[in-house]
Structures are given as structure tokens and as C-alpha cells.
Amino acid sequence: MKSSRHLLTAALALTATGFTVVAVAQGLPKLAQKKTYKVGFAQTESNNPWRIAQTKSMQDEAKKLGYQLVYTDAGGSAAKQVSDVDSMIAQRVDAIFLAPREEKPLAAAVKKARAAGIPVILLDRNVDQKLAKAGTDYVTFIGSDFILEGQRVGQWLAKNMKGEARIVQLLGTTGSSPANDRRAGFEQAIKGKANMKILASQTGDFARDKGRQVMETLLQAHPDVNVVYAHNDEMAIGAIAALEAAGKKPGKDVMVLSIDGGREAVQLVVDGKINYVVECNPKFGPKAFETLKNYAAGKKIAAKIINPDREYNAQNAKQLVGSAY
Fold first, then answer.
1. CATH number, position 69
2. Do 201 and 252 fall within a single domain?
3. Are residues 89 and 168 in the same domain?
4. Partners of 10 in beta bridges
5. Which of 158, 196, 212, 307 is the 20 to 30 A CA-CA neighbour of 31?
6. By the 8 A CB rule, do 47 and 74 touch?
């Protein structure tokens, strides 16, 4: 019996005449070293400054290198993003950069690309690790440590909160790795602390207006809230609008804590309306394409490549606001 590394996987490839069976070896596909590549970038959405900055960084780096970038925007739909990956497979791109909308459906898309002989590099968000793994189904994950981000917020709150913390948590997109991990990290950091209580946790889908609407509703149910932990800046800014509309002073009556570190949010730290922000840097282009070239050169690629992230607080925000994205 042949070993598993010699087994072949049958992948369906769409052609002009119908479906043909293409046999490819199991494991990560090889990538030839070339002067230029045709590379796919399947973005999850473009409805906020973070995603726009990430896309620009990828486009700028591709242009600088002279690569052809096949760009798609899933518009916040996991189903659309799966279809986008299918389209890239049909176009026979050399490799795919993927920012997964949700963990489970995009794990299947990653495995389909691998079966078609196209290596995938994940950006910012991960896929379900029970369904797809680095080094086998995709090359690597490049991004921040989302659990650590949540932990840093929780640790800062524990250190700086005086009295009882009555917390509302605005969750990111349901099923996404940053939402799952930022919640887990934060809740781990405050676990067992008698003076900290989460009153409610509800998704604001990483969107400003949704964050505002959810915060308005939660304020009615929990008027005694004195801490808002938002999984990203957009929801934090939406929450600030809701707090001000309710006659509360964000940053004073209610602490506001966030993750991302966009310039608008960092300016709000300077203004005293946001108390603390952990950065999640969106400028992926240089690291993403460097990793692609290293992979093609046969270099060993780590399963995770973690971006270094800063923090913004009342002490440093004024100095750093100009360098925020």
C-alpha cells in the first residue's frame, strides 16, 4: 500500500466544455519561482477604514512588484467569498490571498483551492482548524494574535478600573476568528475578578451604525453600564454616538475600549472619548508578498506569522496619532 503522501486527490476544474478531473498530490501545492505572478486577493468586505487600508496595502505592493492582482470583494457574504475563490480557481491564479469572512465555509474553499493545485495564504482571519490546517491545506496565517488583543484590553481594564466594572461587549461578526478570539481573550483576562461583570454581549458585526443601534438597545436594558468593550473601532465609534445621544460622557461616565487603532479612533483617545485601543495593523502588503516569494523559493514558512501591534492610551496617543492608519 502506498503512503498517504503518494495518494492523489481528484479535484473538479471547470472548463469550457464542462467538468474535467484533475489529479493533484495531497499536501501543499508547489509554487514556481517567477518574475511575476497572477495572484488572487479575496477580500471579505470594504465597508470600513481597516478593510480599505488593507486592500490598498495589498494593491500597492502588487503594483510595486509588477504582479497581476485579481481582486474580489465579498461584500460581507461568506457565500459570495466562496464563489470568489471558485472564480479564482477557474482563472488559474498562481496563488490566493484570502481574508476569510467566516471560519467554517471558507475552510472548505481553502481545501478546494489546494486540491486544484493553488496555494492559499490567509490574511487577518483564520479558518476552522478542525477542517483545515496550516502546512497541509494552506500555507500560513498572517495577522494579529486576536486572543492576545482581547487579553490586553482585559488586563488594561483590570489595572485601571476603579470600583465595579459593568461591561457591555460589542462582538464582531458571528463566526469570525477575530470575534471568537477577542471575546475569549478578554473574558479570560477578567475571569474570577469580583468587581468585573459582563452585563451583555451582542454582535455589532464590526460596523459603525450597527454598533450604534446595538448600543442604544443595550443602554435601555442596562442603563448602569460603565464600560464598553468593542471588538473594533467602528463599533466603538458607533457606541460613542449612542452614549452621547443618551446624555452620557464617553471616556468619563463610560469607559470605551477598542481594537484596531485607526486614526479616527486614536484621535478620540486624544480627545478623551476612548480610553484604550489595541492596534491591529492592516498594512499586510509587504509581509504577504514577501511570504509568497519565500514560499516559492522553498523556504520553511511558520504556521502563523504574527504582526507586531502597538497600543494607544492617554499617555501616547497624541504622539502616535499621525502614524495611525
1. 3.40.50.2300
2. yes
3. no
4. 23
5. 307
6. no
Cα gap 134→76, rounded to integer Å: 24
Q: Helices (DSSP H) in the chain: which residue ranges?
A: 49-65, 78-90, 103-115, 146-160, 177-190, 208-221, 233-245, 263-270, 285-296, 317-320
Number of domains in the chain: 2
Secondary structure (DSSP) of 76-114: T-HHHHHHHHHHHHHTT-SEEEE--SSHHHHHHHHHHHH
Average pLDDT, the chain: 92
Q: What is the pLDDT of residues 58-102, one digit of tens each?
A: 999 999 999 999 999 999 999 999 999 999 999 999 999 999 999
Share of the chain above pLDDT 90, in %: 89
Residues 22-50: what's their mean pLDDT? 85
Give the range of the structural domain holding residue 185, as residue numbers without chain letter. 146-280
- The pTM score is 0.83
Q: Is the pLDDT of residue 4 over 80?
A: no
Residue 67 within a domain: yes
Q: Name the phi and psi angles at 129, rounded to 5.
A: -70, -15
Q: Output the CA torsion 178→180→183→186 (10° steps).
A: -70
Rounded Cα–Cα distance for residues 200 and 190 (Å):
15
In terms of domains, do 46 and 114 share one? Answer: yes
Within 8 A by CB and 6+ apart from 1, the residues are: none
Q: Nearest Cα to 311, choosing from 206, 168, 159?
A: 159
